[in-house]
Structures are given as structure tokens and as C-alpha cells.
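TL;DR need C-alpha cells for one chain.
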Amino acid sequence: MGLGLHGYHDVWHSFPPAYLTRQSTGLELGTGWAWGTLILPYLEQKPLYDAANFDLGFGEVSGPLLGLRENKTVRLVSLSMFLCPSAEGGEGPIDLGAGSSRVAISPGQYIASAGWLDTSKTPVKGAGVLYPNSRVAIAAVSDGTSTTLMIGERSRNLADASWPGSFGSLADPAPLCTKPGRPTQSCVGMMFLLMGRSGPSSDIVSGSIPGGNTPNAPGSGADGFASLHPGGCQFLLADGSVRFMRDAVAPTVFQALASRAGGEILGADQY
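>> reply
TL;DR here they are.
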């Protein structure tokens, strides 16, 4: 995935957005093709990329469900590179959690790191590298590419995730919720099928998240990061390296790692 993201950057001079979306004043309209689809040509998956009809939103339901039919191949195919070998329930469909419906999208277990992202503001922008409609170049990662998160894990015991795209965002057509049995029961917008964030917790659809998200934290919401690895999660950094992030990392440190240009100074012993 790191090679694919940097291959995209070589061609387009920026990293891809977490997903492409149509936005208007006060509205997040969706329905977006995600970073996973956009980097397919750089993952030796050009035929699958060519099967996508980008003239239609991902899973667009306008007209005679044209987008759902036209993009069925990309929407449902399972790719092992987007699935953690040690995680459970790798195949679809997506379970939105908390007794919600299931949707026909291929699941993934790696999500974009949007940093601090407030969905109550339009346009929706994150402090990280990948967020809706972002075009962040390496030169804009002034905190340093070796200390800036880009992709992280989310196991399905916290909430589901997807790699090709999302049907919508915010509460359309349904919110994404933490799985039953989680210490924190909350729901966020559908855009978080594709990305995670460090905070805030004030704009969630329902429930309560005490503080920001950190890896494997019991209080993390459906917009957070999680894995079944003991002690933490794997993250891809903006320089293309992979690092195991301890779940004991302080929320302030995790927020600093998730930002691309916050100016924070971090010691290696802090994470």
C-alpha cells in the first residue's frame, strides 16, 4: 500500500484523497471512490481499476441504480492486500454494527488517517494526510514523513471498514456503529468506513466517546483504529515505512503523529 500511495504521488504530485466526494454548504453529499481504488494501477491491479466507471459515484443510486450495476465488479471484489492475515471476518458484506443493516461492499482492514477532522464543518478537512477531497503533497508534510501517519488498521471487532469506496457519508444511508459488546457504543458517519481520525468526539451521530481515539483504546469509536495484535496496531507512515504503534500511546502524542503540519516535537520513546 505504501508503494501504491507513493506511485500515485509520483504521477499526480500529491497523495490521493481518503475519498472523492461532492460537497455543498452544510452538506456532505458523497458517494465517494476511495483511496484504495485510486491506487490500484500502482498495485499491479490496472484491469480492476479500468473496470471502475468514475463518471458515476461509487454505488450511486440515482436513476435505475446505474452505479450499483456498473461498478459491481470493483464494489464486491476481495483483495488480500487490504486484509490483515491475523484478523477475523475478512470477507464481506459490510456490517454497519449496532443492529444496523449490511451493505454490499468488499471489506478492508486498513483505513486512511485523517488526523483531527470535524465533520460538522464544510468542507470537511482533516489535519492528516488523507481526508475527503484532499490533495496533500509530500512537501506539505512539514512535521516529517517518518513521523506522520498515513494508513492504519481497523479490525472488525471495533467497526467495519472498506477499501473501494462508500455509499455515502454522515448519516446517509445509515450510520457506522461500533460492534455490539464494545465498551463504547457510538455511531459516526459512513465516511468513516474509509478513514479513521484522532478526534474530535463532539460531532458523532449518536452515543458518547470520552476523549479522542488511540489504537485499541476501549473508548474508541467507530472512527478509530484497532487490531487483534497484542499491544497495538500497525501503521503506514508517509515515508512508506511501517511501524507498530503501542496502544499505550498518549492521546496527545497520537494526535501529533496523525497531523501533517502541527509543528509538534516528538521523541521516539513516546510511541
